[in-house]
Amino acid sequence: MKIRNKIIIVGLSLLMLPTAVFAKSDKEIVTLGADLSETQKSEMLREMKADENAKIIEVTNKEEYKYLGDVLSSKEIGNKAISSAIVKYKKAGSGINIELSDNIRIVSEAAFLNALNTVGIEDADIYVTAPGKVSGTAALTGILKSYEENTGKKLPEDLKKVANEELVVQSKLSEELGDNKTNDIIYEVKDAMAKNMPKDEKEVRILIENVANKYDINLTKNQEDKLVNLFNNMKNADVDWNRVADTAVKYKDKASKFLNSPEGEKAVENTKNFLEKFIDFIVSLFK
């Protein structure tokens, strides 16, 4: 029964994933890994369907180490920069959409959205890819560079570092807890910090423990420590907490309204019926 319930939950999560609808952009910027061969660069541009007038910038492995070196091992980062992305900036209020190619194997759209929300990147369509299988963590460095190129403004270094840390922590936590639980705890902690900022690391830990208990999430000591370190660093970074809180509220409201709506209830029931029939079919093969 537990396996059946888990499969139903996974199926429902897939149905709830947003579909990226790319609108016409005001400015298009492509970020390419500096270690791509010329052939690979051409392949990436074709895959991205980049405009011939798109601005192209490169990301080096040294830059990846600068922002990921404190949260990933050298083995995880690697010695080549190959992750690439295309960012299409749109008019204010358009919202943000993220799509990942099949070669991005660990980082999720939700993890990118959270990290971009932390630094304040909005109103853009983003596609992340690579010529081979990669985790996807290094792509954020290029996206942040594209934002600086687009606005002409430098993002604070502590903000860029904490955004990369958030991407890594959320990605690893999602592998262990699942996307939904991880999203719940990340957004809830952000919302709570925006309303009542913890004074020190001890209060950050208490806040995280309270949120985990609220959502009935059992964190290991290692998981809790990583979250405490992340949000303590975020507390001390140049984050626009009013905007972050607004996004957190929208996330929670959207999820709640969908699940309680006729469409949400129907999606749950349809997914349950389909998956139960599918599971029964699989089980019958072994009888």
Automatic annotation (TrEMBL):
It holds the Pfam family DUF1002. Residues 1-23 form the signal peptide. Keywords: Signal. It comes from the Bacteria. This is DUF1002 domain-containing protein. It comes from Peptoniphilus porci.
